[in-house]
Amino acid sequence: MTTALKHADRSRLNVSPQLDPKTRSSLGQYMTPALVASFMAAMFDPLPDKIRLLDAGAGVGGLTAAFVQEATKRSPRPRAIDVTAFEIDPVLAKHLEITMLACAAECAAHEIDFQFSIVHDDFVLHSCEPLLREEPTYDCAILNPPYAKINSGSKARAALRRLGIETSNLYTAFVAVALGQLRKGGQLVAITPRSFCNGAYFTPFRRILLDSSAFREIHVYSSRRKAFADDAVLQENIIYRLVKGEPQPPEVTITSSANPDDEEVTRRQVPFAEVVHPGDPHNYIHLVLSDADGALAERVQALPCKLTDLGIKVSTGRVVDFRARDHLRREAQPGAVPLIYPMHFEEGFVVWPKPNGRKHNALAFSQSTIDLVVPSGTYVLTKRFTSKEEKRRLVAVIFDPATVPGSWVGFENHLNYFHEQGRGLPGDLARGLAMFLNSTAVDEYFRQFSGHTQVNATDLRGLHYPTRQQLCTIGEQVRMQMPDQVELDRIINSYFS
After folding, report:
1. Using an 8 Å Cβ cutoff, are 479 and 349 in contact?
2. pLDDT digits (tens, 9 = 90+) for 105-139
3. CATH topology of domain 307-493
4. pTM
């Protein structure tokens, strides 16, 4: 490890605990460990003779130091590196300058001309206006962008809109703006949360990436805890290399490892059509890490139906509890209808009420709440959010009106519910659908494109399903309880070709 990278990594470890927690949270400050930074720098291929490098949100300079370390090892070495590093935090900027000076010394020792400029400003605001009128100039960009939200009424959000970038997340804004500053053929390597890979929310960002660049390599850390272990960040992170303005090759390299310390890196050449399915209106990014994952994807995608083919819809629960606070009731009572939360999920069914639960059990029924409820019937419910520690991403249960009294029911906003035109499903169909969603195969397939713990209705619409008759046949095997996982998987796996 070079002197510059050692300094940056020591500074990262020493400074991080001293940063103000509120400022750190608002700026999304999680600095890159040396091992991760070195891995990212090695992904650039090839390097031009004279390099203009962008390091947006540079922190203490670990990414630039890793880039310089990599450049000095290349043969042939570049003749010049000119770095523009953005860092808005004055504490970090002091350490950044020392790192840059160390980089200059290392480059001088290898006969590489090194220049740098530190910009003490907001990267997005500083860059958006020039992008409207100036030609892109950077050859390379290396990023660990901040993980924070952008307020809808902020100057940054307005500036991004003028560029045609619609996002409320800083990490996607940084990547989109940095990509816009690359010349044609320029390379961007970034480590970000995996969450942008799916969900309608990130569709505009995915289209920016796919329309303006080509994916060449994607790396996945299978452990949530290791990439930023020193900062206790529990996040699915991926690293990717994009090439600006070039057509997408028919194949992309997907690599994976358990964590940055893992020397066993799995490498696959994957048809890009398996990563982003042709015709997918949302451009979901599927990360198939092994041959077994690829075979599973083929089996699931071979299923014949989408929800529209089944005549089934999925919606998000209508009751947002903080907005309906005056109508919530802790216990069931006359004039109230059952209100279902995730706490009512138990072994494949809704168990209601839960008298000692943390949430409410009922909703007052009136003209004010009539639009928040649906007619009682047999519904399939899934959690919209699972904890990061949970083994399953998809968790489905059956709402059985025989066990929950009442003519109406409310589903809380942390649930999705499957229905036919706003009403319940036939019993066998609902039970079969719940079994399918609870299968190990479907959960593992879902994780190939779901990079976060949220299960959106859009994601569920995008799945492939057995036929309606097949689901009913599956459902005939369920009555008062779900089969155990082994038996459930045996039944569902028989429907995959």
Report:
1. no
2. 999 999 999 999 999 999 998 888 877 777 889 99
3. Adenine-n6-DNA-methyltransferase TaqI; Chain A, domain 2 (3.90.220)
4. 0.84
